Structure prediction request, 764 residues.
Amino acid sequence: MAIVKTERHPELPPPVSQTGVIGWLRQNLFSNWWNTILTLVSLYVVWEAMSALIGYTIINANFAGTTREDCTGTGACWVFIKARFGQNMYGFYPEAERWRINVGYVLGAVGLFLVLSDVIKDKKWPAVFLFVVYPILCYFLFYGGFGLPKVETSEWGGLFLTLVLASVSIFVALPLGIVLALGRRSDMPVVRMVCVGFIELIRGVPLITVLFMASVMLPLFLPEGMNFDKLIRALVGMSLFSAAYMAEVIRGGLQAIPKGQMEAAKSLGLGYWQAMGLIILPQALKISIPAIVNTFIGLFKDTTLVIIIGLLDLLSVIKSGTTDKNWLGLATEGYVFVAAVFWVFCFGMSRYSIWLENKLHTGHKR
Amino acid sequence: MAVDALGRQGGDKVSLWRDPKARAVFFQILVITLFLAFVFYVGNNTVENLEKRGIASGFGFLSEPAGFGIGIVLLLDYNAQTSTHGDVLLIGIINTVVVSLSGIVLATIFGFVFGVLRLSKNWIVNKIAAVYIEVMRNIPLLVQLLFWYFAVLSVLPTVRDSIKIGENVAINNRGIYFPSVIPEAGFMVIVVALVVAIAGAVFLTRWAHKRQDKTGQAFPVFWSCVGLIIGLPVLAALVTGMPFSFETPNLGRFNISGGWVLEPEFLALWLGLSIYTGAFIAEIVRGGINSVSHGQTEAAHSLGIRPGLTMRLVILPQALRVIVPPLTSQYLNLTKNSSLATAIGYADLTAIFAGTTLNQTGQAIEVIAITMAFYLGISLLISMFMNWYNRRIALVER
Prediction:
């Protein structure tokens, strides 16, 4: 008697050990004995680190109170940050005037959101607002004028000063960087030499020496009586420094545009600036946006260096807080707080840059 | 009248302003004039300002006595009364070079270890590396340095209650203390033996490579080199009868004498620089290894090459081509970032020369110019070396 199955045998589900949670665990954590040891050791390390970290920052930490004496637990003393929160955020900006900074933040956030997100397709007016109207508005809002009392820049500080430093530097560095990058790729040897010289000189030295130069030597370079305040000097140094890095990033973008684009533009009768402005730069800037954001992250982190020439940015305010005799011994809390603030900003920007890269890649990504 | 290829007549010339060549010449002359005018204006103001403030110029200050103490002095003798600003410059340079080189070594180790871990198939190991990279990359270096210095190393116990590892190593808020080696007569023999051993190892490697190319026979290069470099000096020491002695750090009530010490300033800067730059290098390494197509691994495995050897002989050599150029710029960044030493009091060039010497002499232009020239020079040196290395490992095409 022959046994011939005529219907198809039903498909069996894959073994339990290869699907679902167990399969994933087996594949990713316990695939062989070496991997298992690695996993167990890592789990132990993570457990120890996380329990220490959470214990220190949350469970055993002190949140309530106003003075050093309120910190009785074994963990972090966040009272220190809370008690000096106004100073950490705004420096010595008069308390009655701090609403001006907040208004500036809100306007800036709205402008940034409109320009960076996809909500509005036509970005022309948001861009005009953010890059032309907003800076002028901020100048009067923060510094004073039109009936607002004047607040000297020596009173600016905290996170506010950090943000001012970063945004003004990028605002100046971007156009300057474009000019330098174009100059470096120019056919005119003299222009090229000047640009290469400037870029390589700046890129070859640390930011500190540039800041030293701006703060010590700028007064020597200018005629008697013409004197900028410390903030402007720091801004000049930081802007020139980041312009050199920006120039190299944009040069990379320019190099990626095929030569045919320029030739096509010229054969249509466009002049150099027309071709650059309408054909080459829009493409080059678009592909270098992620790198520009990365440069901006670097610039943002570098703003902390102004502590060395005596400006009161976030790090500087916290550092002077840790030497306050009422709050001695709280260096860890202070620096952890600064690190967390910078981390949130920089990590956010790097995620944005990755998102943008993926968005811009559509079409020509395999 | 001349007629060109398009049949236009050459007589009616374009106006000079519309001629690109003439315009380029004009524009360049303009740039030169503006540049010279700027230099002249700045120079003029500077000379005037210097005269008014009564600041001397020239490099004479380099041979004047410095008159201030320096925390960390290596190789040279330094005396606050007799040593000059020139000595300060030299000590600053040595300290900068020392911390940069040791930082580069440690950062490379961190970078390669975490870069490879980031590619691990083990999910949790992979994520640990990712957390290290993302956390350290996104926190300013200066914050990290201040954290290490003020929040970690400064709160270590005082000299009296030092943490002791074994008998002779002590950790306290003045640094990490090791026993030092005091050379006695005949110590040079050991040094010579070490140099000979290193030279021998280099020759052995070359010879083994040549022999393998010719005959296909492999030679255990690594272990024989290790044996040579450790064995020969030990042999020399035994033969000459141990011409050195150890001096252990002597813990006093408030102070420590004798022994070698790693100062907290150096440690903070070294660790901070290495951990920060290591995170960037890890990303570079990951990118480089990812850039080698998976087919290479499969091909190597199908030829019967073991996984470890595949990594070393097939993947890494190709990945290095992608890794080396950005690695160079990370090394340059580390060297430049070592100037942040000034914030935690490590006596590097920027801290003692562009800081203290500048304040004492007031000769900002000369001091800043020397400092910048040094950093520029060292940048050029590192990039020259790395370009040479890059050429050596680059793909040889037609």
About this structure: Chain B touches chain A through 54 residues (CB under 8 Å). Chain B has three domains: 16-53, 85-175+261-393, 180-247. The radius of gyration of chain B is 29 Å.
